[in-house]
Amino acid sequence: MDTKLKAAAQAMLDAFGGDFPDWIRAEAAALQDAINAKPSKPYHVLVSVDGSPGCKWAVEFGDYDETTVKQEFADMRDQGWKRRELKIITTGDTQAEINAAVAELNKDL
Question: pTM for the whole thing?
Answer without folding.
Answer: 0.60
